[in-house]
Design a protein that fits this description.
Blueprint lengths: L5 E7 L2 H6 L3 H18 L7 E3 L3 E6 L4 H19 L3 E7 H6 L5 E6 L5 E6 L2 H10 L19 E2 L5 E2 L4 E9 L5 H16 L22 H8 L5 H21 L8 H10 L4 E3 L3 E7 L1 H16 L3 E8 L1 E7 L9 E6 L3 H10 L2
Antiparallel strand pairs: 1-3, 1-4, 2-3, 5-6, 7-13, 8-13, 9-11, 9-12, 10-11, 13-14
Length: about 350
């Protein structure tokens, strides 16, 4: 990444406790709101980002600093007002992380014909997160009545139950004795094991997730999209909207260029169930044998100082969606375990 670019990072403070309290959907929505607000702030101009479950990381052009600061500030105020959740955020110059001996590299991974996701490496994103948690480079929250632009953010799909035994959240970070090549070999071994699962471990069926009525994320969707309207009014509007959507998907009613069965399949194809941000993260629909094989490889690698890892199991996967336009194929879908997946797995690493 160029030296004059900025790294943006944000996460929910004490997210593990929020998840223990049963607020995993809320934590995911707040984390995805960071990406939504930033994307809308730059008028959908593509930039690299990664969803982390309880937060997000991204890289942005220097000339958009004020716009991004405003977006991050507004999301913090919204999260506090609507959910009582504290979201912290920071913007770090790439030149500063390089001066600290870190690097920031990015690649694009094409998940489908319509969507590609950024993959970060070099340690720079992790360093920026550490700086944020230490209170440096902080972006302050806006006044409590600030309203971020979260257009397109939603969670209307039902959770997807495990088909093969468990939804396995995997977080693998480099260990003290790892270099890029040695860590890469371990990551490829884990990817190969996952590829042996049905659909390569993808937690969503190829036809896409299910939709039910009334929608399970009604309150969240209303708080995301109500703006300055009353919560009750927005809930009523969403119930009407979702009844229409449910009918369309149930009877497979085609409307112009919109084909429900095609869109639903695209949700699965566009999902980010595998990602890389200074480490490998995956949400897999796994059978017990594959889970044990993954843990055996990681345990051996950890003993050699090559990795640090955490595994979390739950019964379902969940999807949080960012859909700028339902008629285009570039809608993105963030997948996590419905029991707090990535956050729970990462908390195991912190405890070691």
């Amino acid at each position: 990444m160029p030296d004059d670019w900025l790294v943006g990072v944000a996460d929910v403070v004490n997210s593990t406790a929020e998840i223990v309290a049963g607020r995993y959907k809320t934590v995911n929505m707040v984390g995805a709101a960071v990406i939504s607000a930033a994307t809308n702030g730059v008028a959908h101009r593509p930039f690299p980002y990664v969803f982390g479950g309880d937060g997000a990381g991204f890289a942005i052009w220097p000339e958009t600093r004020e716009v991004i600061e405003s977006a991050l500030s507004a999301v913090q105020a919204w999260a506090k007002r609507e959910f009582g959740i504290q979201l912290r955020a920071a913007l770090v110059p790439v030149s500063d992380l390089r001066a600290a001996g870190q690097q920031l590299r990015v690649a694009r991974f094409q998940a489908s014909q319509g969507v590609d996701y950024a993959m970060f490496a070099g340690g720079g994103l992790t360093w920026a997160e550490g700086q944020m948690k230490a209170g440096t480079y902080a972006v302050a929250a806006a006044p409590e009545d600030a309203i971020p632009d979260l257009t397109g953010l939603s969670c209307r799909w039902s959770n997807q139950p495990a088909r093969n035994g468990t939804i396995l959240s995997v977080v693998i970070l480099p260990g003290p004795n790892a270099d890029d090549a040695r860590f890469g070999r371990v990551a490829r071994d884990i990817l190969r094991i996952g590829e042996g699962l049905e659909l390569g471990g993808h937690p969503l069926p190829a036809r896409g997730p299910d939709m039910q009525y009334p929608p399970p994320g009604l309150d969240l969707d209303a708080r995301v999209s109500r703006g300055s309207r009353s919560l009750g009014l927005r809930k009523a509007q969403i119930l009407v909207e979702n009844l229409f959507f449910w009918f369309i998907f149930t009877v497979r009613l085609r409307m112009g260029n919109f084909r429900p069965e095609e869109y639903r399949a695209d949700v699965a194809a566009n999902a980010d169930f595998r990602k890389f941000d200074d480490g490998l993260k995956m949400t897999l629909d796994s059978d017990p044998d594959t889970r044990n094989r993954i843990e055996a490889v990681l345990s051996e690698a950890e003993a050699k100082g090559l990795v640090r890892y955490g595994l979390a199991e739950q019964d379902e996967a969940m999807v949080t969606c960012f859909v700028p336009s339902a008629t285009q194929k570039d809608h993105v879908h963030f997948v996590d375990g419905a029991g707090g997946g990535y956050t729970q797995a990462a908390s195991q690493i912190k405890a070691t």
